[in-house]
Amino acid sequence: MRRLISAPWFYTLIAAIIVSYAGATSSHAHEDHCAAVASSVEEAGFSDSVTVTCTETDAIIQSLTYPDHELMTGITGTNEQVPVPADYAAPINLTPTLGGTPLTRDAALGVAVNGVPIYDYTGGGEMSQADLAHHQAQHDTLQTGQLDVCGGHAGRGDDYHYHVAPTCMMEAMDNADENPIIGWAFDGFPIYGDANPDGTPIAADTLDVCNGQLDEEFGYRYHTSPDAPYIVQCLMGEIANFDSLPRVRPLEAEAGGGAAPGTPPRGGVENLVFSQGNDGTRSMDYTYQGDDYFIRYKPSETSDCYDYTTQTVTNDGALHTGTYCR
Description:
This protein is of the alpha+beta class.
């Protein structure tokens, strides 16, 4: 759902930002912007698993949202969901233009150069206009133990995505020492790490409410940051088809009906480990109040389907089996 930030007090809060950004657009022509998106993926070393194709309006970054780095390690506040590959096509606007109204969304705001979606830092649904100006500690996925050591987790659709800086991906990038673009927001503006593109530190109070600032090359850019909001919090650019931006399709039982989302075990779990076997089996094992639990799946004979065996806190430790599909 599209949410426009329209409260009068909010405009007062960001009035200086809007005035300074008025008329700012990307200096890149359509072809240059397409090349910039494609180059960011190739130079990072992810072109084997991520493709970029350009239309008249967008650069489409396509992937399976399943990164080649450690997954789920370090999570205590699990929702008992596991990462499952999902076809994902992220449209990056080729003619980015700053608007006057920040946009929020209860789904991804952009995508990393390894093809993994990037969300805002919260896990409580779409942020309201008041939420943007105040740290939402109770919904902070980092502070509540919901994220792994790489900055991501599996969401309600069993899709892996980032909520803060994707540190493992950033360390693995071929051009990691060049302060590179680490992702793109759907409005067409790039996402960088904690420093400016030239490597200089970002001065205090420079980043705006969406965690971005003006940029000489692209018109505007977003950043990650050590403190909340950690990464893109909202979109400062215009998007013509905002309501049509992609969402990962949740798993559904092969016989029909959706898979009920898990319920975070109160107080958190311990010793959570996610492993992958040579036969394609993937398993998340953990303990809760001294008892062992697990979620395991492997590819089914049916395309885009997976055979599950689970014993979860949500289901009171009962053993369940079933086949679920995208």
